[in-house]
Amino acid sequence: xxxxxxxxxxxxxxxxxxxxELGAASHIGKVRRLNEDAYLARRHLALxxxxxxxxxxxxxxxxxAVEALAxxxxxxxxxPEDVQEAIGQANEAILADSREPGRGGMGTTxxxxxxxxxxxxxxxxxxxxxxxxxxxxxxxxxVQLTVDHSEVAELVALGRLRAEEASSHPLRxxxxxxLGTDPAPAPDVWIFPTDPDxxxxxxxxxxxxxxxxDARIAAIVEAARGPRDAATxxxxxxxxxxxxxxxxxxxxxxxxxxxxxxxxxxxxxQPDPRAER
Length: 277
Ligand code: MN
What we know:
The protein is an alpha+beta fold.
């Protein structure tokens, strides 16, 4: 496993006046002989990459993805186009390396979240290529923000397969979009403002979601003492549940904004309807 960022501690950083705490954990699992997952948990960037290819160096592909994104993590402000350019560079790096003998056909998923400057205010940018996922944890539930690029997800979307059949379908591991292809894959991207009440996100590889359902993921994160604890507990639970693949989780937490940070001028108070009765 190639890992960049904290595996054993929480990190608090401030970017765009938003404090971010990060936690990350990765495990080879109980079956695989190599951990081809990689992750980045640094400042305003959190992501996982699940390398594919086995003999064809999936670990090299996922490391390229992490390195390309790590190159922009040191910038004080990220714009959406910075993230998209870095994803393009990751694809180029994997393609270039694929021309080396024995490395043809390697690829990787890439799923994550970045705090970006969008129109001068802090927004989250969620990005995805492949079947790794980003969840938002809120109100005791885990909501999958990304859409899987997989054969089974597409069959479910077309109404040809019921969602409950997807987890046992023979095509469940076949992904329809990955980094390391020519032409370059288009990442799915979602942009939305940060929540002043705080946000919690989980980015993870399919080794986690194949072992734990969404309800279990939410329950574990809510029970954890912080992002580092949450990431470790998620990965431990997935390994205990079978660990049939490499398992990686990165957890992002922003605490609620302090009262003084809220710009009251932009949120005029509405008259209280009860006062008018
Ligand atoms: Mn995997």
